[in-house]
Known about the structure:
Distance between the termini of chain B: 28 Å
Largest sheet of chain A: 5 strands, mixed
Number of helices of chain B: 6
Structural class of chain A: alpha+beta
Number of helices of chain A: 2
Shape of chain A: globular
EC number (chain A): 3.5.1.44
Helix content of chain B: 40-55%
Strand content of chain B: 25-35%
CATH class of chain A: Alpha Beta
Oligomer: heterodimer
Strand order of the largest sheet of chain A: 1-3-8-9-10
Keywords (chain A): Chemotaxis, Hydrolase
Shape of chain B: globular
Distance between the termini of chain A: 23 Å
GO molecular function, one term (chain A): protein-glutamine glutaminase activity
Protein name (chain A): Probable chemoreceptor glutamine deamidase CheD
CATH architecture of chain A: 2-Layer Sandwich
Amino acid sequence: MKEPISVNLGEVVVSSDPADVLVAYGLGSCLGITMVDRQRHICGLLHAVLPHRLNGADPYCAKYVDSGIEGLLNAMLKAGADRRNLIVRMAGGANMLTAAGLSQTFDVGTRNIESALETLQRLNLPLHAQETGGHSGRTVRVYVASGRVTVRVVGGVEKDL
Amino acid sequence: MSSAVEFDERLIETLRSLTTIGIHNAVRGFSGLLGHKLEFGEPNVKLVPLTEIPMIVGGPENEAVGIYLRAEGDFHAQIMMILPLEKAFQLVDLLMEQPEGSTTFLGSLERSALGEVGNMTGTFFMNAVANALGREIRPTPPAVMVDMVGAILDIIVATTGGVSDHVLLIQTCFKDGSRSVLTDFWVIPDAQSLQALQQAEKRE
Lengths: 161, 204
């Protein structure tokens, strides 16, 4: 069996190889956003870190949620996906710091979720499912063969998203 | 938003020596608390690209313990101590003077012991830096979390990602007789504090 393809911080991976499994490991405040075109068997996964693209960054820069979603969409279309078929899901955006006095300061997770929802709305892409927020890390997997997307938390089992 | 800071050799050297003093100070303080001498290995200080961090701590999906605090006052920085779960158990055993292998679960007592490690280490570390710089630095209370390495490190990545592509890693080893526990400290000074440090260097 092929090794899963690790989608690291600030990366987008799109695949149409049925043997591929795309994985974003240990998402905390980061967001994993997946796009699946079941009809054409094309899947993509984005691992975005921060909510908004900074001035000067690439318009498809995958480090940021807003430009990363545009980058993922662009890569999906380039690979031959049909926009009308796209099923979008997202997971992550947790607030990892729960100690008093610290949690409010960097709630990047919540801001990432907000940025994703705004961007998807602007691009007119409906969100099919999400498992976001909370205080736990998550691992997201995309099985290209079936288009299945799963989420796992630490000590837990893989569940369909 | 602060502008990016160039990590030149000189700045790394300054941070390395500050860190070494800080860790020395922390271990001394710790030994005082425990009532017997705790030693530590020579710290290894290096600059690490943000994207490589999860690999260093054994892979992003591995379960780990993160102890996080921030420095406030005249110098702003974040300190994250991160230990694979097994190492955290060992450290609790070492601190609570139990035979190795006694701790198999992190309850509130164990978490509080680990928080105290972060608190002590962070405080002594900051005192050393404060003395060296002649600035006032205060630590925040520590936050202890148990989760996937990647998720814990997102705290660092998210707060530095827009500013710097590299962070400073300090690896050191707590030793008590023949027992030792390797720990990783991530020290993330914010860009403005780094710039102040650089300017202080230039004036010297």
